[in-house]
Amino acid sequence: MSLVTGPGRASISASSLPTELQLSIAAHVKYIQTLDKRKDELEYHLTEHLRINGIYWGLCALHLLGHPEALDRDQVVDFVLSCQHENGGFGAAPGHDAHLLYTVSAVQVLALCDAMETLDERGKGDRSSLPGSTSSESGILGVGRYLAGLQNRRTGTFAGDEWGEEDTRFLYAGMLALSLLNKLHLVDVDLAVDHIISCANFDGGYGASPGAESHAMQVLVCLAALSVLGRLDAVSDKEKLGVWLSERQVDGGGLNGRPEKLEDVCYSWWVAASLSIIGKLHWIDEEKLTRYILECQDPEQGGIADRPGDMVDVFHTHFGIAGLSLLGYPDLVQVDAA
Amino acid sequence: MASHGIPRSSTTEPKTEQARLKEQEQIQEYTALVDLIDAKIAERQYTREVLDLTSKLLKKNPENYTIWNVRRRLLIHGLFSKQSDSSLPLTESQSFSPGATTTTSSANLSSSATTSWASKETLPNRASPIPGKNGTTHDLIKGDLDFIFPLMIEYPKCYWIWNYRLWLLDQAIDRLEVDVARELWSRELALVGKMLNRDSRNFHGWAYRRGVISQLESSKLHGRSMVESEFGYTTKMVKAHLSNFSAWHYRSKLIPRLLTERAASDLERYQFLNNEFELITNAIYADAYPYAQSVWFYYQFLMSTIVDEVGHAIITPNLTDEDRIEYATKQLVNLRDMLDGAEDCKWIYNALLEYTLALSRMQNRQPLEVDKEECRSWLAELRKLDPLRSGRWDDVEKSLKWLDVDSRFAPESGGPIEL
Ligand SMILES: [Zn+2]
């Protein structure tokens, strides 16, 4: 989800939508800004395990909304660095254990803030330089080594942490962060590609591990990993996969994650980005999906929910806005599907 | 923070003073508990008391993954190695957590020592396991499994709980006698069965089931193949809910192994394929199921074993080309029959179109004029019935036009005519 120019814009003009269905940009910016000012709510404390992801989702959404300055950059960078452990990995917040998912969010936030060099200045981890590498990038190497240490060298997939849970989500997240750190040479790329191939199912989709049912989020992480690794040729049947993905759209315009499940805004991103990667975004009704996402926003207080009328949160706000950006909604910065 | 299905409160009335105070109290209580656990762990108090504190916290918030990790460390570095339930704090081996300082944060207990996925295989205290059914270790594991169960029922989508449970059961394999460990693992099959009865599509539940089965089949637990009973389980599940795609999916994954283990002959494989087609065709004819995509994806899976060129013939690998052509032809007749009374079912038109083109490909020829005529009429129905996916139908139409243009040339397999 790096912010580079993506595929061409779809033909949705804001003027074709009724005024109550315009994206409430100002409200969303305000909503994200106030997320960290809710310490008097129990929910704030119960969601500490998502703090660093929350910052990434919020910041990424702000970039797409064209307001990257709405969060204080130095404060964000300081917070991210305060989550790092001696082993180079990051926890969800200070006091939380290191885990791959939070480490990846940390790397993504630092990339968005254009602050990767702070790792070399203030980062932790195994910074001993390898022959041929420059000592000035040692902090980046420390994070790269932590991530690379989580690859299963027998199967190619990744664990989330030392306790060993494995999932194609971790494989993608690890590879994405390693590529942002420019440290892909620390892992076995071919083995990882083979592992993704072994997670493919008869319906063209991918699961979390070999044998697991296809799921839109797992499809996206597998496609995005292959895209990051430059190996989209490994997708065996793009037609079949495109059919399965396009059947995620339900009559109301929203997308679900598996056959005969409820639609949800977060799947707008996972399904639409997957279709975009295989060049078949036009296989769904993009205008109806745009309307569905907009129906899920809270136009006054800001934020986007999973379904119309539900409670908003920063996770769905991020995926909703990323989905709209992918669909070419006007005034948004273009997102890259991978 | 990632909330699903929670209604937005219709009004944004400010909270009453009473509600505000109550919330402050809850926050106080929660953060004080986190701090207390942190402090005790910093003092290396790997005791039953601290274990109970983590239970209390996890009941309030099972998403706090760090506390699950604290619990793991309490067990492996403390409680598992105790002979009796003494309340003395345990001293920790030097190899654990190098570089740990005396800070009061739990951060220094984190994964600095080992980040490799393989680290779980080098457990400390391996030298003095307490085997048998009455040992402390067994009681701890069993007690912990019982503690988690209500949490799993309440939070069936929380990844950390499922992972912790699997980790705990792996500890049983490493630390207990085989038959004792096997008994614990066997209970899980009944448990996950209950979970899937409550929600027959739960993603975590199905993944957990596959994990449990693979351990129960492994030599570590003196297991043997359970593919027959698992296949029977999918039959039961799809018969209960014909649109249970999770069960159809699992079935597709079991079939190759099932047939291999049965050492099925070509004839038996052919009959097996017939039975599967009969099952899915009956499902399609039942109630509203012609409109359920789950059954059609399974139908597609069965057809792919017949019409796909290479690598997919997992059920009947030795069918001749003529046999396969005959089979596909027969299915096209069945599909036409299905249209009777279900003229508004897009899935049937979609299948007719796809397999008519596949048949011509199998016969190494271009589609006949009459085929193309029919394909166009089916495509028109698809456009009418399924306007959401009109972009997909545009691409199908392009591939049909491409057929027209290219029909003078020698046929090719694959290429743009695939749907
Ligand atoms: Zn969602």
Description:
The complex is a heterodimer of chains A (338) and B (419). Chain A has 14 helices and two strands. By secondary structure, chain A is mostly helical. Chain A has a domain at 201-338: Glycosyltransferase, CATH 1.50.10. Chain A has a two-stranded antiparallel sheet with strand order 1-2. In chain A, strand 1 (304-305) and strand 2 (312-313) form a beta hairpin. In chain A, helix 1 runs antiparallel to helix 3 (51-64), helix 8 runs parallel beside helix 10 and helix 10 (216-228) crosses helix 12 (265-277). Chain B is mainly alpha-helical and 419 residues long. Chain B has three domains: 23-224, Protein prenylyltransferase (Serine Threonine Protein Phosphatase 5, Tetratricopeptide repeat), CATH 1.25.40.120; 225-284 and 296-319, no CATH class; 324-419, no CATH class. Chain B is built from 15 helices and no strands. In chain B, helix 3 runs parallel beside helix 5 (159-175) and helix 10 runs antiparallel to helix 11 (293-307). Chain B is elongated, with a radius of gyration of 29 Å. The relative contact order of chain B is 0.04. Mean pLDDT of chain B is 84; it is low at 84-134 and 408-419. The interface between A and B is large, with 80 and 74 residues. The complex binds zinc ion (ZN). Zinc ion binds next to loops of chain A. Zinc ion binds at residues 264, 266, 306, 316 of chain A. Chain A: One of its GO terms (molecular function) is Rab geranylgeranyltransferase activity. Chain A: It catalyses: geranylgeranyl diphosphate + L-cysteinyl-[protein] = S-geranylgeranyl-L-cysteinyl-[protein] + diphosphate. Chain A: Pfam families: Prenyltrans (PF00432). Chain A: One of its GO terms (biological process) is protein localization to membrane. Chain A: Its cofactor is Zn(2+).
